Amino acid sequence: MGALHIVVCIKQVPDSAQIRVHPIYNTIMRQGVPTIINPYDLFALEAALQLRDQFGGAVTVLTMGPPMAEESLRKALAFGADRAVLLTDRAFAGSDTLATTFALASAVSKIGETWGTPDIVFCGKQTIDGDTAQVGPGIASRLELNQLTYVAKISKLDLEAGAIEVERRAEGGTQLLSTKLPALVTMLEGSNEMRRGSLACALAAAQAEITVWNAAAAGIEDLLNCGLKGSPTIVKKVFAPGAHTVRAQQIELQDRNADDIARDLLDQIFIRQPQVEADLMRMASGQ
Amino acid sequence: MASAQQPNDKFDVIVIGAGPSGNAAAYVLARGGLRVLQLERGEYPGSKNVQGAILYANALEQIIPDFRDDAPLERHVIEQRIWMLDDKSYVGMNYRSEDFNEERPNRYTIIRAPFDKWFSRKVRDAGATIVCETTVTELIRTEAGRVIGVRTDRDGAVVLADMVIMAEGVNGLVGQRSGLRPELKPDSVALAVKEMHFLPRETIDARFNLKGAEGVVIEAMGTVTDGMVGTAFLYTNQESISVGIGCLVSDFKTGTAAPYELLHRFKTHPAIAPLLEGAEVKEYAAHLIPEGGYNSIPQLYGDGWLIVGDAGQFVNAVHREGSNMAMTSGRLAAELVIKLHRMREPFSSENLAEYHTMLKNSFVMKDLKKYKGIPGFLHSSSKHVFGTYPRLLSQAAQTWFRVDGADKREKERQIVSMMRKDRSFSGLISDAFKLVRAWR
Q1: Whether B134 and A206 lie within 8 Å, measured CB to CB
Q2: Which ipTM value was assigned to this complex?
Q3: How far apart, in whole angstroms, are the C-alpha atoms of residue B22 and residue B29?
Q4: A5-225: CATH homologous superfamily?
């Protein structure tokens, strides 16, 4: 096996902490809302950079999105990634996770042809705008990579043996998993802390040529698998949840006997659920 | 360490800061074919920038003549209202003219977040290298004192250039740390706070009697600042209203009210509250404004360095102009640097002195010089200018307009005696004299 090659998939998302809903039209105001790299992806990127620093090799960052997603790639380069690929094409617009994984998997293959087959593909656990957590596993499935999801820590990487060992957070505890390379890893939040890129990296990032691929350049011939056409998911409606007008109520406990407290509590329940009261009364009267 | 630097990373000019002056300088320099590095400490260009905000077209026009084609502008100003407030009233002067509905309007309201993004994209497209999230910690100087580069907070890494333009804003920390300029004085800097109030476009149009992209600007002063030196403003944007107030930092130190309290007082003034009614507040920002005027301008040039924008104290507090002076100073600095670069002249203090001459020949220094006595006048007479006089004016107007059976000669007598009671005749004359002298 040659030098370590890692691909990190990132996504540019609106900074959800700063999203504003238009007070009058209830639409999301994108103007002036800063975009960020999906926070989970940063843990993936840092994990990749740490492995590269330890074993040598290169980190390629990949994103699919509109031309402005280039900003996110430059940020990734400023953190220390070695090269960046922007996959952008009108044909990708409206992609659901199925179409997204098709496009990204094609691009990862193309990256492999161009700069050497990746040993590891990293993704964040999920994005903060889509929240599906399907894209990482989808890429793994399409490329037949061993997949390690919800990873909290890369505990061992053995390039000689082509093996990786990770800690995976699961319900009820931490699993220690090992598998053969090539593998796809999705990283959990809090698994590391993103570094401050060096000035040299920041300068290189600002001046770097970003590789831009459209569908054809990424080796995608069948556009039927892309964008809206390749997306069986249909968003029927977007709506803001209704305002919660019911306020929690406290019942005074101090210096009161249990009967009074119970009666108060039942009163409050019956006010809100008259049917419950009616049913109980019926039962009590033996009907 | 300097060793981290790649050989191709030596720049002709480093511009510190991505505000209006830094962007103007970097844009002109890059268009002039120089290798420009712009360093910004914020997360993205504009993230640290706050303004009212009014854009004065002329200054930008001289840098980007066709800026109207794609710059994000809110409304062009067709009406200016200048109000003297007391607690319940205002005495005002409004000027509105159809002439301001010209093909190339003179003033616009803007929202800085999208505007700065646009301006920065222009700088990048012109060919400048922009690096954000990077703070310049100090200037790198030769033993002879010549500036040859900057040190950054990225592991202390150094980047070199033939010339450094400091467009670092009001605080001027780099210049200060390098001993090129004194620390800001509390009586020459104002703290301004502003809020963005969202309202439907039609509501704003109706409340301010506007159509299309027309806009109104209100500048107000008076008892709302409680005798402190300061002014308040209200600007109409397309679907929001910017409202704010600012006072000298030295006054906040001794004054009775905090900035947000003053803003609250202004917003709830009976003349202002109906204009904002029903609006939703979505943003709150604060910023320092250099208001020391001509007498507080630091040394602006030296071997290998120039100062532009707020860092040079280029703000005309009387006319509320600052960003136009920032852009103009940035442009002039860049034009001189390009000229010297083309003539293969060194960026020596003697050669860069021409920057000062260029400023002196422009409106920047001419206006600052004209009003150089104003900060001192306002400071010495603040109690009367921002308290007594607005109150007297309002009382006089009310006495004059209220029809109550008193004859007009009696009303004149009442007004004069009111004036003399609150402010001695000699005090009035002396203030008027001082103001005229400061204004000339």
Answers
A1: no
A2: 0.82
A3: 10
A4: HUPs (3.40.50.620)
